[in-house]
Amino acid sequence: MVKTTVAKVSKMSKSERLAALREKMKKTDTGGGGKGFWSPKEGRNVIRVLPPVGGMSFFFQEVGKHNFPDNRRSYCSLFTTDGEKPCPICELVDDLYADGAKSSIKLAKEIRLRRGYWMNIINRNGEDAGPLIFTPGVKIFNQIQNMINDPDYGDVTDEEEGLDLIINRAGTGLDTEYDVKAKRNSTPISEDADLAAEWLEKAKDLSWVEVSDDPEEDSELSKGHAVYILPYDRVVKEFGIDDLDVEEMAATVSGGNVEEVEDVEPRRQKAKAVVKGKVPVKDVDEDEDEEKEEESEVEKEVTRRATARRSARR
Ligand SMILES: [Zn+2]
To answer: Which residues are close to ligand 1, an ion, with C-beta < 5 A?
Structure first.
């Protein structure tokens, strides 16, 4: 169980937390594009993962995505809310796998859930940038999780007694390998208490928020949040899920060989099981190619929303 192991209550009082959250919501830019995100470069990287801020319960926020062949994307409400909200696209993916037709499976494979874990970090090789959002996939997250579960390390995000992490990245593309180690000695986030406080103040509130049925209200409701999901019915409508031309859409999926698809078990249950700690993470699909893609996610989402708003006005 990841969550119980890493749970850490903020040391701030309730009113201080609320004041900090309100202040942050004023400042947080939701349309930052690649700005504000970090990903490991090839070779040695040293980072410090920050503890939860704002409305976050834990140092990370699970973020699910669905990518459509026409480049539209949607956050997965099921995975992102840890099962609290159903996701029509996950249901569609299950139906497509159950249907079993080649085109259905090809499309299912394309739009299935991609899992990421968002967290605030300080890049020790560029501290001037302040807190950045790191969005690792399962490979890196699993290594951080193992470290936290190991009594020799414990909560590596602790403000005072946490540990800097060394991420070695080797190779590129699908062959990219990541190795995560912790520094030998625990240290505070910064020896300079004022700077540490400033970083925690500037770190993004990554807790999810659900926007309304009205696209016009999106920017207001998502203000202060980097992770937001759409209501169920709106996703169904915006992605035309009720009358999808599977054949046509599958035909636009680039690459991929449908003959190779053997495992047609619905990914939704598996993904949930991983979150609940029931299935070893290695048993599910790796989406490490997501590690590099995340940077432009917000930008794409903003563009998508702007387009949706424009067409809604017409
Ligand atoms: Zn989903």
So the answer is: 76, 78, 87, 89-90
Ligand 1 mean position to 111 CA, how many Å? Answer: 9
CA of 159 to the centre of ligand 1 (A): 34
CA distance 40 to 235: 32
Q: What's the gap in Å between 286 CA and the centre of ligand 1?
A: 16
Reading the chain (314 residues) residue by residue, the pLDDT tens digits are 333 333 334 566 766 766 665 554 444 433 333 679 999 999 999 999 999 999 999 999 999 999 999 889 999 999 999 999 999 999 999 999 999 999 999 999 999 999 999 999 999 999 999 999 999 999 999 999 999 999 889 999 999 999 999 999 998 877 889 999 999 999 999 999 999 999 999 999 999 999 999 888 888 888 878 898 999 999 999 999 998 999 999 999 976 544 433 333 444 444 433 333 333 333 333 344 444 444 344 444 544 554 555 455 44
Closest CA to 227 of 167, 297, 132: 297
Top-tier CATH class for 2-313: alpha beta
Q: How far apart are CA 240 and CA 306, in angstroms?
A: 18
pTM (2 d.p.): 0.71
